[in-house]
Every structure is written in structure tokens, then in C-alpha cells.
Q: What sequence folds into this?
């Protein structure tokens, strides 16, 4: 089984990561049952208009803490998923995420799931 996981990594600033996650992934706060029923982008906007920054931060690991990201992914492998697709929130940070965090994060995930 494969599961998606979306951290919002930032090397220095959890608040900046939360801001980016809220801007791009606030729809995540409604959960998949809500999202799968929404027919248009206007519906997504309406459904997510009251999602707060703290709502996003409680459902998406945000910031530089690799352990927090690992803990956020833990429920997927505990539920029996064998593959996790990581999607870094906000493509503007992908190069730095891949250079600085991806290796240590993968090591932490392998160690924690083993």
C-alpha cells in the first residue's frame, strides 16, 4: 500500500513553513472525505476558508525538525502502508530540501520503521 505524506520542511523557521503549508495545503485540513467530494477549485476555497494556521500545523509536520516529520509519517507504516510518497510543500524550497533534509529524513524514516 502506498500513502502520501506532505511535510513542510524549512531549515530555520517553523512559522515560515506553516505559512507556506497554509497557503498551499490548507485544503488538507478538511480530510480526504471532504476533498474527494468537492467538484471545483471554488469549492476547495469555500471549504478551506476557515482552516487556521494552527489547524494546518497540527496535521502537517512543519519546520526543520526531522523527528517531527518522522513522527508525522509513523501512523502510515503503523497502519500497514509499505510505501510513503513524500511531497515537500512549496516547490520553491525543493532544492534545499533535497540537499539538506532528504537524506537525513530518509535515514530517520528507515530507522524508525525498521
A:
Amino acid at each position: 500500500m502506498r500513502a502520501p505524506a506532505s511535510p513542510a520542511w524549512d531549515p530555520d523557521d517553523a512559522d515560515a513553513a506553516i505559512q507556506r503549508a497554509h497557503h498551499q495545503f490548507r485544503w488538507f485540513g478538511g480530510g480526504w472525505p471532504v476533498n474527494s467530494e468537492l467538484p471545483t477549485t471554488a469549492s476547495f476555497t469555500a471549504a478551506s476558508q476557515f482552516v487556521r494556521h494552527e489547524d494546518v500545523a497540527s496535521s502537517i509536520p512543519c519546520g526543520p525538525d526531522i523527528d517531527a516529520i518522522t513522527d508525522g509519517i509513523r501512523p502510515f507504516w503503523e497502519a500497514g502502508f509499505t510505501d510513503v510518497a513524500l511531497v515537500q510543500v512549496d516547490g520553491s524550497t525543493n532544492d534545499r530540501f533535497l540537499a539538506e533534509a532528504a537524506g537525513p529524513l530518509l535515514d530517520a524514516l528507515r530507522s524508525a520503521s525498521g
In short: The longest helix spans residues 94-113.
